Amino acid sequence: MAAYEAVIGLEVHVQLATASKLFCSCPTTFGQPPNSNVCEVCSGMPGALPVPNKQAIHFATLVGLATDCTINSRSIFARKNYFYPDLPAGYQISQFELPICEYGHLDIETDSVVKRVGITRIHMENDAGKNIHAQGENVSYVDLNRAGTPLVEIVSEPDMRSAAEAVAYLKALYAIVTYLGVCDGNMEEGSFRCDANVSLRPVGTEAFGTRTELKNLNSFRNVQRAIEYEIGRQQDVLDDGDKVIQETRLYDAVKNTTASMRSKEEAHDYRYFPDPDILPIEISDEEMVKWKEELPELPKSRAARFMQMTGLPEAEIEILVQSQGLADFFEAAAKLSDARKTANLVLGPLLRECNLRGVSAANPAQWNMRPEALAELVRIVDQGLISAKIANDIFSDIFETGAMPEAYVKEKGMVQISDTSAIEKAVDEVIAANPAEVEAYKGGKTKLISFFVGQIMRVTKGKANPALVNELLAKKLQ
After folding, report:
1. Which of 105, 169, 237, 242 has the fewest CB atoms nearer than 10 Å to its CB?
2. 30-51: per-residue pLDDT in tens?
3. Of 183, 192, 180, nearest to 216 (Cα)?
4. What digits encode the pLDDT tens for the residues 51-72?
């Protein structure tokens, strides 16, 4: 059995978060009744003239700047000709010979190894509509609400060698476009999706193998599983002495398989030519300087700063910076309290609550809890007002109600007992009630200390200061 190396390139489609479509004023609102966000331009009516959306050009430029691309001050829209029911004009307006961005890169890290993935080009295009195939009926419908929605397509070099690298690249891109605010990042609605080109070649060779294209993958998990399956499928084909067929395949997430969609033995001839209705796009030097100044702190830089603040490992920091909303929330709280302890609360109980309640961890606007409340929770634990256990116990209520922790625990009578005499009384009571365990402890069974701590916490209803409990127990049991 030969040893093979995977060669993977990704074409990522990012829907730009503009209020209107790329060449008309129709809204881009998702979920509207079919064919309600449509006009003469996006429905391809003869004689309708497209007018480029400047905000979309601005957003596309920001993506190029954030990925170290060369920004072409002059770019051209072209007609990409093909026929499909949801493409009423018979062509898609895209970019071909002179895209808006070229020759960038993105650094990714897998298994503590940093790798640079080249970006061939970033071009703008309008999305097609959507075919709806009615179940139980021999009929299909076309919804043009999505037709004309502005996209950028980010085309990578075939530099990735595993599904893990592909997912790392996708996650890095996702973080960038959401930090920039140019995409809402809603993968379920198709705002961020990709096609994966996968081929195999014998280890040590330079020539590429025959590739297959996996279409419209819209979750990180599906990208990983689809590529892993396709690598295994192609290896089985080659090991059997057969040839991989160049084709487009669809991934079935339920069966975890890919299936042929259409043959693609030769590259399509889309007969690109410059769109005669749209003038070349020109970006002035003044606009370029202004847009460069708009770039926010990007995830890679923010992760490095958070690592210095908290001392936490990179894997945990990646979770903190994956979405700008969560990173902003953490940083606001960390400025008011201990950064590492704040991060641990975010990564533990806060994300747990988001998961349990089905709310987005990327959108703190959906939560009742504010950064000030999280910081105060850290502070009152540090001050000994409550124990870490009580903090964990009340976190769900604090998250749900938005209450400030100090007022909450005082109102509920949950303030920690730090009075030495009161704790000493509880310690004496527990020791007196458990003579056999005391003798066993003195006989060498020191693990019984946890039994005594538990009994004291039961007597004090969990309010005793754990540090004082352990200190007094150690003295009295000696």
Report:
1. 242
2. 999 999 999 999 999 999 999 9
3. 192
4. 999 999 999 999 999 999 999 9
- Report how many domains make up the chain: 3
Q: Are residues 141 and 218 both part of a single domain?
A: yes
Do 250 and 376 lie in one domain? The reply is: no
Which pLDDT does position 390 carry in this prediction? 87
> Is residue 447 predicted with pLDDT exceeding 90?
no
CB proximity list for 432: less than 8 A, separation 6 or greater: none
> 311: which 2 tokens?
């001392």
Q: Does 24 reside within a domain? A: yes
Same domain, 328 and 268: no
Q: Please check whether residues 100 and 239 belong to one and the same domain.
A: yes
Locate 291 and state its tokens.
């847009």
Q: What is the DSSP letter of 279?
A: P
The amino acid that residue 115 corresponds to is K
The pLDDT value recorded for residue 444 is 76
List pLDDT tens digits, range 253-272: 999 999 998 776 555 689 99
In which element (H, E) is residue 221 found? Answer: helix 220-239
Are the CB atoms for 195 and 214 separated by under 8 Å?
Answer: yes
**Residue whose entry in the numeric block shows the structure tokens 């105060």:** 376
Paired tokens of 389: 């256990």
pTM: 0.84
With contact defined as beta carbons under 8 Å apart, do 9 and 130 qualify? no
Domain shared by 128 and 237, yes or no = yes
Q: Give pLDDT, residue 1.
A: 47
Largest Cα span, the chain: 97
Cα dihedral 330, 331, 336, 338 sign: positive
Report the C-alpha gap between 3 and 41 in whole angstroms: 52
Helix, strand or coil, per DSSP, at residue 392: helix
DSSP string covering 96-107, please? Answer: -SS-SEEEEEEE
Which residue type, as a one-letter code, is found at position 215? Answer: K
